[in-house]
Design brief:
272 residues; alpha/beta; 26% strand; seven-stranded parallel sheet; Rossmann fold; five-stranded mixed sheet; single chain; MEDS_domain; Transcription Regulator spoIIAA; MEDS domain-containing protein; STAS_dom_sf
């Protein structure tokens, strides 16, 4: 299982990890990125630093990595496109190609530190970014890619930060605490936190952006249902042919079984 939860520092972040980090002001991200990228350099990874207006001079002590080609410094426009509206399928191809090139040169993985603040600056960009987060997280869950998604709280609305936090398995302690989280793991979409009908709507929204055989896993050890309507909504997802697996104690799963009118082959309860 991938690392998930909240962390106060970038220690032990490795392949398949995807962390959302909220910072404050223009000086904090370069310092954050230096530590994150230095860990990757020591692990034999290809590195990328992405910012709105990247300035290599702010990455103190990393000139040798840039000169040797280990570290690439690029603008958001160069990586995500000049419009700032990210096209998820295309962007997935971009990063898969970068990974293939890195592995062909002997690197173990690619590690990307990106200040994505401008990509949340308007409604169109924000909607596109949420779609990309789902696709990117699924990519990182399967490939040796490590992603640091950073956002400046001084420039991004708190509601957008909270929505973005929902789609990261790992969050900084400075990030707003989301009501629930959705992230990919072991080929499935995991939902955790306080699930209400809105959260299930977000599950329904997320699934078309993931591979067609993606199922939904809910672990009652880290999940709370706020209403019986949630169980009915999950049952409707199963009726569409998507696997929904609910794990929990015998008592907890028994209570949920009683909340649905009939069994369905795509809805299963696993006692754990």
């Amino acid at each position: 299982m991938r690392h998930h939860g909240t962390c106060a520092e970038l220690v032990g972040i490795g392949p398949h990890d995807h962390i959302g980090w909220v910072y404050s002001g223009p000086d904090e991200f370069p310092a954050l990125a230096r530590d994150f990228l230095a860990t990757g350099a020591a692990a034999g990874e290809r590195l990328m630093y992405v910012a709105e207006d990247p300035n290599a001079s702010r990455l103190e002590g990393m000139d040798h990595l840039i000169d040797s080609g280990v570290l690439t410094v690029a603008s958001i426009a160069e990586v995500y496109g000049a419009s700032g509206v990210v096209h998820a399928a295309h962007q997935r191809t971009v990063f898969l190609q970068a990974l293939a090139e890195a592995q062909a040169e002997g690197y173990e993985a690619i590690r990307v530190a990106a200040d994505n603040t401008p990509l949340l600056s308007n409604d169109e960009r924000f909607r596109a970014w949420l779609r990309w987060e789902m696709v990117a997280d699924q990519l990182m869950s399967k490939q040796p890619v490590i992603g640091l998604c950073a956002f400046d709280r001084e420039r991004v609305d708190i509601d957008r930060l909270r929505n973005t936090a929902t789609l990261h398995p790992l969050l900084s302690s400075s990030s707003p605490v989301p009501q629930f989280r959705l992230y990919s793991d072991e080929g499935e979409l995991r939902a955790e936190g306080d699930l209400d009908t809105y959260a299930v709507q977000r599950i329904t929204w997320a699934l078309p952006h993931l591979p067609f055989d993606t199922g939904v896993i809910i672990d009652l050890a880290v999940t709370t249902f706020l209403s019986s309507a949630v169980m009915q909504a999950l049952y409707k997802i199963a009726q569409t042919g998507i696997r929904v697996t609910i794990r929990g104690t015998a008592e907890a799963t028994r209570a949920l079984r009683q909340g649905i009118s009939s069994h369905h082959p795509h809805l299963s309860f696993v006692v754990s």
